[in-house]
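hey all, quick one before standup. I had two proteins in the batch that finished overnight and I want to keep them in one place so we stop losing track of which output belongs to which input. First protein below, input sequence then structure tokens straight from the run.
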Amino acid sequence: MLLPCEVAVKSLLPPVRAALARQLMTKHGLKQMEAAKLLGVSQPAVSLYNKKMRGKALDLEKDKEIKRLIEELANSLAKEGLSHKDFTLKFCEICRVTRAKGLLCNMHKALDPTFDIEKCELCMSTELKCLTQNP
């Protein structure tokens, strides 16, 4: 039985990082090494994101809200720099919105065939708390 956060780590984290890397390089003119440093990944990882050889499990560009959140995070990283805490909170917000929209349900089913999409309302409920919400 996989937890929603496990599905997000496997299926959402790489596409968000890929989208962030592309934003940092195209809109902010950063080199792969600079983007990698800001994202806490290696330069070869950014190269693979850029070539769409990694982080392609979800197309996050299709959803306007998620795209906007990624753009805001990239802007904050490039212009202000962010503390680890602020980066985490913004990243968790992207995850929360993605889960709430049901965009990880099919990935969850693919990773865990016993998962019943029709009976699960966990990601879309207010009961599932994350770092972006107050306890």
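OK second protein, same deal, sequence then tokens:
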Amino acid sequence: MRLERFEMKKTLLVAFATLLVSGTAFGQGAPITGTAAVTLTGPATVQAGLPFTVDVNIDLTGITGTCGGSVPAVLGGYVVPVGFSVGRASFSSSAACSSAEFGAPLDTTPVATANANGVVAITDSHANSSAPTGSVCVAQLTFTASGPGSLVLTLNPGAAAQPLQLSSAFQAGCPSTSPTTIPFTVTPFTINVTEGNIPTLGFGSLLALTAALAFAGLWAIGRGRF
């Protein structure tokens, strides 16, 4: 059921993008000036075996669309696939981030499918004509690293079933050839994965452990076990 809903949402977004070309809808249109930066942010170092979360960010700062003149670009919808190495990490969940327009529940690749293929995709859209603009955190993804070393998360990987897409928002009175596609750039995100921490004993703890072992030895002697 969840897979069907995810595929339905992707289909809706494709249909949404088709309206851009057909000219049957009204919204913020071309030309779009500028390029959105799609990035991941998260911890620089994580511990193997423990979950960690990265934010999916889309920065529209300085980007404009056309609606009776130049207007700030509004993100109306997106498909963002994120790739990871199977066996090096596993995907566990997605959640809404700081954007009020892109909230839970997000349409996300089912966990089993994502971990089998090494790609998790998130998809969402909304009907707000004026927000969000600027730098937008659209979602949070949680993974677990399997072992130490460098772990690379790749935006828009070649293995994705559907490539990364960004769309401008519907805005009444704008050109009928809109909304339209927003161009983008992507940057891979690298995380350093360390081994699990091995606890070390302070001097006081070491003395206490030595005393406990000595007492246990005396107790065993007293019971005639040596």
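Flagging for whoever picks this up: The two ends are 65 Å apart (CA to CA). The longest strand covers residues 135-145.
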